[in-house]
Design goal:
By secondary structure, the protein is mainly beta. It has one helix and seven strands, in the order ββββαβββ.
Amino acid sequence: MDADGTRTAIQLPEGSWWDWDVIAWDSGQLRLAADHDLTYHHGLELIFGDPIFVSCPSGFRDPAFRSPSPDELLKVTRQFGGVPPIVVAFEAEAGGQEPVSCLIAAERLDIVQETVLRYWHEDADPDQRFAPWVTPPGQ
């Protein structure tokens, strides 16, 4: 937490969080998923509650999280009318020649480490979570 009470830098749990994508985004939340390979599952979610400002691609690799610059804080402060409780900045690979700078401001941030399957699996444990787009057969 910064001196002004804003949480700007995040600490990820141990793991190989190289591959990232947006798996849900509406007025109530922005949900980012990560793992070393997103083909079959993901093991980490950053859930930004009540996002105020979002500037990031829908998929990216190898983000370097950092505290936002004074200019970035000013940008979201103007948008929000004050400093939001959560402001996260990072650079990431997004397919171009240069890394892209990303900025997210929100009311809350939850970090969830759990395996979430990205495809239907008949033999999955009854408590197994699936990605939002996975629909069990017959539903």
